[in-house]
Structures are given as C-alpha cells and as structure tokens.
Design a protein that fits this description.
The protein has 307 residues and is of the alpha/beta class. The protein is 45% helix and 14% strand. Strand 1 and strand 2 form a beta hairpin.
Length: 307
C-alpha cells in the first residue's frame, strides 16, 4: 500500500483503500458432489479453486454449458481501459511485464504472448456471448446473475455478491488467490486508492487535511470502513477476529496484499497512453482482427515510441 503512493524517494499519497485482485468463483458448484465426481472422472484430479492456469483452463472448459446459459469464466472485452486492465491481470499470472525493471518494453515477450493467447481463449471458448463488449459492470452482472462460474476481479466488489438486491449468488460465492504459471515469477495484482494533500493550499488547510488523513486511516475508522463495504490498508484490519467472522474471505485477500505487486500496470507518466494502446491491440486480438503475436508486436512498437 505504501509503495503505490511513492515515486522515487518522494511520498505523494497515503494509503486509503487497498484492492486485491482475486479469483471469484461459485463455491456451491465447486462443492457439489455430482460436479466433483464428474470433474474427477474427466480430468483425473479433484475439483477445487484453480492454482495454475492449466487448472483454470480445465475448470472453465468443464463448466461451460451454453445450453444451460452457464459459462466457465467471464472477462472484460470492450475496447479501451476495460479490456486492457483485465488482460493485465492475466498477464501478471503468466509472469509477464509491459516494461521490465530496466525500462525495456517487454509487452511482446513469450510470457505476455502466452497470457494473451489464454485471454483470447476466454472469449473464444468460455465466456458468455457478447463478452467482447463487456465493461466492469457487465462482467460483474454476468457473475452475480449466475451466468458465469469464475472471474478475475477486485476485492471491492466482494460485498456486492452477498447483496440480494443485486445478486442471485448470495451465499454461493468464494474468493481465492488468482491462478498463475508455476515457477516463473508470477505475482498477484494489488491496486487501490491514496489520499494526499495539495501543495498549493494554505498552511491551515494543509493541517486540516493532515488531521483528516490521520483520522480516516486510524485502526478504529478503518475497521468501520470495512463494515461499510470499504477496503483495507492495515494488516491489523485483515486479521481482526470480528471482521473475519463477518467476512471469511479476508485471509485470501491478505495473501494477495502480502505477496502482491502494485506495479504490474506501469507507473510512468505515459501510463494512460500505454493503456490506450493496449485497449486497442488486446481487443483486436480477441476479435481476431490480429493474431495475438501481431497485436503485441504492434503494441511494443507503439509503446517504445512513447519514450
């Protein structure tokens, strides 16, 4: 959480709300005895939340049943930030990087290519019809209405799955760490929001802002924040016994916070331009206007031109 508010040796913002990128799945289907029996008979291992991308592939295939309006996994496909950001989540699971630690553009690396080929498979094989046009609310609606069995999503949406006014899967949802390629340096995604103090306001207003930051990030207020559908920034909040009783998914979220990487979206002044490039090229891959390799090669050229 601290890292995302820092740039070099400067601190630009204090943590306010931490988002964990998790796998969301239908625990009622995963725990159903008949489903478990059928899955093991077909794939030779137990049906459980996928740890690897290969397991996710098997489970998505198993649960994709168009005749029953049931689909294995749903993702954002709409051209622009929706598809760019959703693909970046899978890219991280394949140990890919858009720009490496030395500043080299690596968006067309073998790891990124594998991740995009997997991402294309989501829309070709496992996602609901029309998912190529999905933004975040569409993806969440597909999951909450019981149409899709799995999705990679942000922990801020977790409380909504239990809200019966918008969710048909209340009591049927579980959360796990996102699957990844084993042994290749894949990491979990972490995001969130910070809160800062404007440099050009009066000294008096700066003091008021600082008093507010200390208050809103305090342990007591952060606990209340979670009880009203906020997201944590403190480890103590994630391990609080009362909160864990009400929110049994917190331990899985904590694994992501403790082992996550908030830099898988490049933190450069050109970040918005990079996202715009990927929002076009990734969409062209899932619509088959370009092959996955062509899309990433073009993206690499265009991103390099920004620097």
């Amino acid at each position: 959480m601290w890292t995302m508010g820092e740039w070099g040796d400067k601190k630009a913002a204090f943590p306010l709300s931490g988002y964990a990128n998790n796998l969301i799945y239908r625990k009622d289907l995963f725990e159903d005895p008949e489903e478990k029996k059928a899955f093991k008979a077909k794939y030779g291992y137990e049906l459980k939340p996928p740890v690897t991308m290969d397991e996710m592939r098997d489970i998505a295939t198993f649960f994709t049943r168009p005749d029953n309006n049931l689909y294995g996994v749903v993702a954002n496909g709409a051209r622009g930030p929706a598809v760019a950001q959703d693909w970046m989540e899978y890219m991280r699971g394949f140990a890919g990087e858009i720009i490496d630690k030395n500043g080299n553009v690596t968006v067309n690396s073998p790891q990124c290519l594998k991740s995009l080929e997997f991402f294309v498979d989501i829309f070709d094989k496992w996602a609901p019809p029309g998912a190529i046009g999905y933004w975040w609310d569409d993806r969440e609606t597909s999951y909450r209405t019981g149409q899709s069995v799995m999705q990679s999503s942000w922990s801020i949406a977790r409380a909504g799955y239990e809200d019966t006014s918008i969710s048909l899967v209340a009591g049927k949802t579980a959360l796990a760490v996102t699957p990844m390629v084993v042994g290749e340096g894949a990491q979990f995604g972490v995001g969130g929001w910070g809160i800062g103090i404007n440099a050009d306001i009066s000294k008096e207003d700066q003091e008021v802002a600082w008093a507010f930051i200390k208050w809103v990030t305090s342990p007591a207020v952060q606990k209340d924040w979670l009880l009203h559908d906020g997201q944590p920034i403190r480890r103590s909040t994630c391990v609080d016994p009362e909160l864990n009783k009400k929110m049994p998914w917190l331990p899985e979220m904590l694994k992501v916070y403790e082992n996550g990487n908030g830099d898988y979206r490049p933190r450069y002044p050109q970040a918005n331009e990079i996202q715009t490039i990927l929002g076009l090229r990734v969409n062209q891959a899932i619509t088959h206007e370009l092959t996955a390799k062509q899309a990433l090669d073009k993206a690499a050229e265009e991103i390099k031109a920004l620097f």
